[in-house]
Amino acid sequence: MPNFAMDDLDRRLLRELQRDAGQTSAELAERVGSSPSTCLRRVAQLKEAGVIRRVVAVVDPDALGRPLTAFVEVTLTRHGREPSRRLIEAARGEPAVRQLHMIAGEGDVMLMLHLRDMKEFRAVCERLFYADPNVDRFRTLFSMEGMKDETAIPV
Fold first, then answer.
1. Are 141 and 74 in contact (CB under 8 A)?
2. Sign, CA torsion 90/92/120/99
3. What is the reported pLDDT for 2?
4. Which of 2, 40, 42, 71 is the 20 to 30 Å CA partner of 109?
5. Spatial separation of the C-alpha atoms in residues 42 and 46, rounded to whole Å
6. Left, alpha or beta for 33 (phi > 0: left; psi -120 to 50: alpha)?
7. Residues 6 or more apart from 52 whose CB is under 8 A from it?
8. How far apart are CA 49 and CA 4, in angstroms?
């Protein structure tokens, strides 16, 4: 990807696709000022270069019965890739975990979860944190209200 040079059309395409990736090629072409065939070719190049990783629908967690959002900071006993592998693999397989990050600071791993309720949260804690001997402690922050949930990256 470092060798991929984007021009103004690529940037316009990325801005527009991040706003609405479900529009037709004709709509996209009209909005960025290009032809549908050029847009299709450029989007394919952006995908091939790894600039566009995937195209998804953004769904409201509340609409799917997952109104509880939790941010969990995990502190590990031992650090590094290998000691954290068990937690990372388990978290990747956990449906409630929406984001997983290795972090710098006091904690080692940060997870964002969308949950049905506290009962599900307790079960996730049992599977991910209490069952892993390398988890020293974890701290949870529950979202009272989402104020911004943006998926677009500035282009």
1. no
2. positive
3. 58
4. 2
5. 6
6. left
7. 14, 17, 43, 46
8. 7
Query: Given a cut of 60, is residue 1 above it in pLDDT?
Result: no
Are 53 and 17 contacting, i.e. CB atoms less than 8 angstroms apart? no
In 3D space, the residue among 31, 30, 39, 14 whose CA is nearest the CA of residue 153 turns out to be 14
How much is the average pLDDT of 32-53?
96
